[in-house]
Amino acid sequence: MKRWVSAHQSVLDEAKERFGAVIPFGFDTILQPGDEATSPDQVVKDWLKGDYERLRSIMERIKDRDEYGVQIFYALGLIGRQIAEQSQEIQKLKGEIATKSPGMAYIYRQKLEKVAKAEMEKLADSWFKDFYGRIKPHCDDIVIEKTRKADGDRVMLLNFSCLVHKEKVDSLGRELEEINNMDGFSIHFSGPWPPYSFVAKAVVSIKGE
Q: Do 119 and 142 fall into the same domain?
């Protein structure tokens, strides 16, 4: 199976090298013939002819563009300490905990955790909007992917698949470098990849007709 997947990727790489753009069908994509008498070559020709305009539109959309993965993480411990230092409500609760009985102190610590969590979520929402706004001008399109669970002290704030024109890759890289240099943040930038995330729905639609 690994050899088949590797061969599939090699075909995509070779096609892109020769023609400059390729619609990356997922591994194991199958074109269903109308009848058993139709040759495989004719099946492909009929499909290309029938969906020519749509395929051409997709090709124009991804020409000279690749997919890049952008993941931004923040250091939970460091950001948490910064929030604790800057939040007046958290400072007030900490002061009150020191004066309470063990039972009441426990209740106040639970309240403190809720306040800290709410502050973190508020900040995370603000960061997401800020970083999205900074990354978007360098991309033709962005697909927001699911984030993964925290890895130790690192929390994934966002996970983007970005469709980027070859002329904007450097500017995107510089923007991400600025974010990466911010205290408490780190970037994982991968690619270029075939633009699977930006043709998947169109390909499924084509297959289903």
A: yes
The verdict on 106 and 42 lying in the same domain is no
Collapsed DSSP state (helix, strand, coil) of residue 157: strand
Segment 24-71, tens digit of pLDDT: 877 777 777 777 778 888 888 888 888 888 888 888 889 899 999 999
Tokens at 131, concatenated:
């970083």
Q: Are strands 185-193 and 65-75 parallel, antiparallel or unpaired?
A: antiparallel
Question: Residue 143 in contact with residue 161, Cβ under 8 Å?
Answer: yes
- Tell me which residue range forms the domain holding 111: 65-197
- The CA–CA distances, whole Å, from 192 to 8, 122, 150 equal 17, 33, 25
8 and 39 both lie in a single domain: yes
Beta-ladder partners of 102: none
- State whether 53 and 118 are in the same domain: no
* The residue type at 154: R
For residues 105 and 14, membership in a common domain is answered with: no
pTM above 0.85, yes or no: no
CA distance 28 to 153: 38
